[in-house]
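The step that takes the researchers longest sounds almost clerical: writing a folded protein down as plain text. The outcome of that step, for a single protein, is printed below.
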Amino acid sequence: MNTESNSLVSRRGVLQTGAGLLLATALPPLPGRAAGSSEYRIAAAPASARLAGVGRPETDVWAYGGTIPGSLVRLRQGEKARLVVENQLNQETTVHWHGIRLPNAMDGVPGLTQPPIRPGDSFVYEFTPPDAGTFWYHPHANSLEQLGRGLSGAVIVEEREPVAVDRDLLWFLTDWRLNEEGGIGSGFGNRMEASMSGRVGNTVTLNGRVSEAEAVRAGERIRLRLANGSLARIMALRFEGHRPVIVAIDGQPCDPHEPEGGRILLGPAMRVDVMLDMHGEPGRRYGVVDDFYEGLSYRLTQLAYDERPPIRAHPLDAPLELPRNPLPEPDLAATERHDLTLQGGMMSGMGGMQGAGMMHGMTGMGRGPVWAINGVSMMGDGHAGMEPALTFQRGRSVALAIRNETAWWHPMHFHGHSLRVLSRNDKPVPHRQWQDTVLMAPKDVVEVGFIADNPGDWMLHCHVMDHQMAGLMTVLRVA
């Protein structure tokens, strides 16, 4: 494996990127939160950040609360939240509360669920999160550019009872395309990229900065919340010398298990919570490596052990399993079954596909769609009058077979619901995995199940943002 240390790389080495992460000993509340409440004021506005590290120029970004990533929103399971979003940009925006099962009117899709927030205006989002876990928030208007310029942040919904760990850490990963002057590269909506892997950057940050090494202590147990806020980059993380245990995917607890092949696969928009028992040697360093792209591995950071002896002689004597969320189980014996087929991409002959909707914000993309679902392309971010591909009666158990007939990877995200992943390529999926963003490899067939219990018109789209904007999106209706 050709593993590069973390550094800012040239534009020629788009995937050979440098990165790092910031391990905080505490997860700070968002400025503007009223004491003892779940009420926040969040401003989307221009800001600056030193993304590429010490000695590099600052980058002009768009940010929530003035920071990259946007300051943490911490909510409580089963308690009402009120979030006032102010738009200080020079274009319309919305906020989508990714992965949270909330009312349709709070989902943040312009035209479909709410009017866009105009410059100088604000919008009040109110909902009660039913599930504890790791979620995030981002725009659903001009998504490719707004997310690509920095508008994203994490949402942590706390369990009713604290989980027994020594530290609870958030690693929010984002990749950026920076030019040699440190600015964000132009070219959002490049048609060539949209027809392949999307806009993959050349600099990866964790919690908004590049870092060479992070301090840990032998003997501690860390709950590590991984979130991928990138536009297109898929990651496969290896923790050298360690055995992370996955305990939740997309905010939903699963049966604790070690990742297949020792790699934690993290597509755009996905979150994975792991438990890490720090059993390395005091004084040593261990690499965290992303080797998803063959031949283009790089070191994300290093776990740097303190010289002091372990804080305990044996691993923490506490269960790894997280408390389950109140997800309704689909009745697999009485499901209605449907197929959704993903089509398009480079060399696919998309010219005959039926286009629907507007290609808002896709400068340079050309006029036609690049991707389709069941032969229909919906382009852009969402708008009024989008016709649903499927309609479900409320309360019905549904099984969807999603077929990726393309040559590219797609993280498929369904708004307002969590999906029980039943099988992949006719093989049962173990560990009781629920996801809102299902990563599909080329030619994959994945079957998911859910109860259609959240009424409204809900987006289903690829979270490689170029793919969504260029047609890989549809609407599913719960009547």
About this structure: Residues 249 and 272 are 5 Å apart (CA to CA). DSSP finds three helices and 33 strands in the chain. The first helix runs from residue 143 to 148.
